[in-house]
Specification:
By secondary structure, the protein is of the alpha+beta class. It has twelve helices and six strands. It has a six-stranded antiparallel sheet with strand order 1-2-3-4-5-6, with no helix packed on it.
């Protein structure tokens, strides 16, 4: 009964440290990434509510990236803390088994690995896909936030805006619009498919809560079927923004694709699989790399737990104990860096992908056998 309480105490303390460190790392990284997402409002003109929703949907991806490092730091800090408070010495002198304490570390590593797998395989693709769906289903960008005085703006595909002056009341002066994407075909009297149109107006106005731009006293210049310049003057016209789309990527990226679809791309059973470029070898390489990150990266958490468990073998009075702690931490940290480096080769070489999965599993088993042998024989390093 007493041993169970002590083991539970270790479990809870390490888990608390892990959650605290993980949330700290994730919060800092999320703030940095959220700053990068400001382009959604500044360049693409999305509403602030869309920006905050999009930023929040990316939190779990950031969290999953820091899981191995946060576990390494939390486990190391916890062992050092237990040692400084003489808790480990009391346990060893009371007859508690070191290998059982090491097993507690591995048990925690197992749950954290499972947690990261759930995030990587299920939660992250779903939330990232939802964030892309959020952007794609916006009716249009807020043009009043994109247009600025005496600046060119090409936030919309195939169309460039320039205004000499913009008032706070959304009134515009000396407007120049160059369309090469066919967005302004509705303004042309002749029904043709020409996509080169220029609009010049002295004044303009952006109505609130409408996807339109009202222009006054201007001219529409385009090319007819004979490639001749055609000019149309107007006193007032209304430019619809419904056909305009920003340069924001609409197609789902690899990390936004569900794990099931990625496996279908690697092992296709249906030739009509609707996944962009799925049949290309280079695309499959990127898919393999993404699958390796989702499944392979969590496997390095138990390896970190096994390496750090060697701290239990060191005697506090050993003068090299301090150096050994840093050595084990450095080795574990180097392995996490190596896992990121190897990840880039999984898309190129099949052997690299196989090694990426086998290395943490085989190394963890071998190190655990060596660790258990030393602990059971009370051998001190």
């Amino acid at each position: 009964m007493l041993k169970n309480k002590i083991y539970n105490y270790f479990f809870i303390q390490i888990l608390k440290n892990f959650i605290t460190i993980l949330l700290t790392f994730a919060a800092i990284a999320w703030v940095v990434r959220a700053v990068n997402f400001l382009d959604l409002m500044v360049e693409d003109g999305f509403a602030s509510s869309v920006y905050f929703q999009y930023s929040l949907l990316n939190i779990t991806t950031i969290v999953s990236r820091f899981v191995p490092l946060a576990f390494l730091v939390s486990l190391t800090i916890s062992i050092v803390k237990f040692e400084r408070q003489q808790e480990l010495v009391i346990l060893w002198t009371s007859g508690f088994s070191k290998i059982k304490v090491a097993n507690i570390f591995l048990l925690i590593a197992f749950f954290i690995t499972l947690f990261q797998l759930i995030l990587s395989l299920l939660v992250n693709p779903y939330l990232l896909g939802s964030s892309r769906f959020l952007l794609n289903n916006q009716k249009g960008s807020q043009i009043n936030s994109i247009l600025k005085s005496n600046e060119f703006s090409d936030s919309f595909k195939g169309i460039t805006f320039h205004v000499d002056k913009k008032e706070n009341t959304n009134e515009l002066t000396n407007i120049f619009i160059k369309d090469v994407g066919g967005n302004l075909n509705t303004l042309i009297s002749e029904n043709n498919k020409e996509k080169n149109t220029t609009v010049i107006a002295k004044k303009g106005f952006i109505p609130k809560d409408k996807d339109t731009l009202i222009l006054f006293d201007g001219i529409i210049q385009t090319f007819n079927k004979k490639n001749e310049i055609q000019n149309v003057k107007f006193e007032k016209t209304e430019l619809s923004l419904n056909k305009m789309s920003t340069r924001t990527i609409t197609e789902p990226k690899i990390q936004e694709t569900s794990t099931v679809l990625l496996f279908k791309c690697i092992f296709p059973k249906d030739d009509n699989l609707n996944l962009t470029n799925c049949s290309k070898d280079n695309y499959k390489g990127v898919v393999v790399q993404n699958i390796s990150r989702r499944i392979g990266m969590p496997l390095y958490v138990p390896l970190v737990a096994t390496i750090i468990s060697f701290l239990l073998l060191f005697k506090k009075e050993n003068k090299y104990n301090f150096l050994k702690k840093y050595t084990l931490f450095a080795i574990s940290f180097a392995i996490l860096i190596l896992s990121e480096v190897l990840l880039g080769y999984t898309s190129i070489y099949k052997l690299a992908a196989i090694f990426y999965f086998l290395f943490p599993l085989s190394t963890s088993c071998l190190l655990y056998i060596y660790l258990a042998k030393n602990m059971l024989s009370e051998k001190v390093l």
